[in-house]
User: What shape does this take?
Amino acid sequence: MKIKERTVPQGTILDVEGDLTYANQAVFKAAVEKAKQAGCRHLIVNMEQVRFVDSAGLGLLVLASQSFKLRQAQVSMLKPQSYVREIMSLANIPQLIPIYESEEDALIARAA
Amino acid sequence: MNSNAMQPIGQAIDSSAQPEAPAATILLVEDEPVTRASMAARLMRVGYRVLEAENGRVGLDVARRERPDLLIVDWMMPEMDGPTFCEAVRRDPLLKSSQLLLMTAHDQPAQIAEGLVRGADDFLSKSASKQEITARVLAGLRTSRLVRELETTGDKLKSSMLLLQKKQAETEADLQTAATFVQSLLPPQGSPVHGIALAWEYQPSLTLGGDLFGVMAIDADHLGLYILDASGHGVAAALRSASLMTFLRVENILQLLGSYDPEKVLFEANRLFPLSADGEYFTLWVGQFDLPTHSLSYASAGHPGALLSSAQSPSRWLTRSSFPLGFDPSAQFASDHVSLKPADRLFLLSDGIYEVPSPSGELWGRERFQEVIDAGKQTSLSATIASSFSAARGWQQAQQFPDDAAVVGLELIGGPEGTFNG
Assistant: This one.
């Protein structure tokens, strides 16, 4: 799994590529922690290039969302693939972490 | 010949050349006493400890006893010549890595080639200058030191490996004991209460599994059911599962909540088992079966759920979209109800049974699992469960499952034929 981060005026976008799984948890945790330390108010996880999310990956997303919420900050998700979207909806994730279809939508929604 | 040749007749004198390291030991094998004495004197002056032998046979004995750092051997000797000595050293398990310097009077290319082929590492001309002798001896000792370091490292590696294997075996044995204990907490196969048959198969991906389940009588009229799945793998996940299993014990739940109402159980579990610092959590399905009315109430916390297989109609999933435990501290988990008929089967399963990839990466999936269950209506409960395991194994073309795989089957005894074939 590879994560590239981009800073946009209203937040940070993590472009994740590969599988978000137990084996890759350290990389993801480090990227989230870095954004948190930088005082990021809106973390957008771009899931477009993520093929698979296992239970550990799901936990990491929710953990990130919970810790951002404690600081009145937000985690959003961008364009998950259909299989990943299915896993997310089975666990009700969209109720905790909103899913957006474009960066613009995500940024506008947060700003609004 | 020198009769005391078997004893070291020259001891190294402390020299300023090598003040810290102990002096290297050199064995000199040479039949000609004057040459031997002169060479030994030269080496001792530089600070080496020198052992002397008058022929090859004696030389081998001294070498085995003293393990010198370098062997300097004359080519021309009676009984055993230099090249034959080299061959003998290379054949000897104790000596084969020794550094050998072959001394010759005439260093012809053909002779040098023969000496190298027969086991020598380098040559020393009898007419060599003091500087050349010193340089070749130093080079030989350098190689010798490297070879010895390599041998020592190899030995250390071997003993570390053995230690590691022993520790590994101890850990495996510990895990096996823990696994046996956890297995002993699982419900016995057969009939948990009158009118219900129970069969299950469980294949942890590691020795100690994190998927656990329970089927237990709550009182004369109620049967409690659950299946839980811990995220993550390994011992930590298994320990967390065992603690949730303890929480789910009938006595504990009745004392805490007064009943085994699935939505109350999930609400309490959600409160008591938050997301861990590493983002680990459980999914949990809980059911309560009313024996007199055959009514099942159930609720799920993010668990893929249970499958109800009716004798007359296609099977259907008993689950709804919901948060796993710990995702939302204020989450509510609504119960659903379904009525079972005689001969109906209820399967509780972990996603590990159907989330198995084929060699090309395609998942077996829920639908294929469901097809196996539907196809097994006429076979016994345990045979149907067994065939789901063998179909999953066939799909992934491997015996071992990537995640814990569990299928628990319950059958309401009293089919249309009035028989039970569990």
Remarks:
- Chain A is about 45% helix and 30% strand.
- Residues 41 and 73 of chain A are 5 Å apart (CA to CA).
- The helical segments of chain A are 25-37, 55-70, 82-90, 93-96, 103-111.
- Chain A touches chain B through 20 residues (CB under 8 Å).
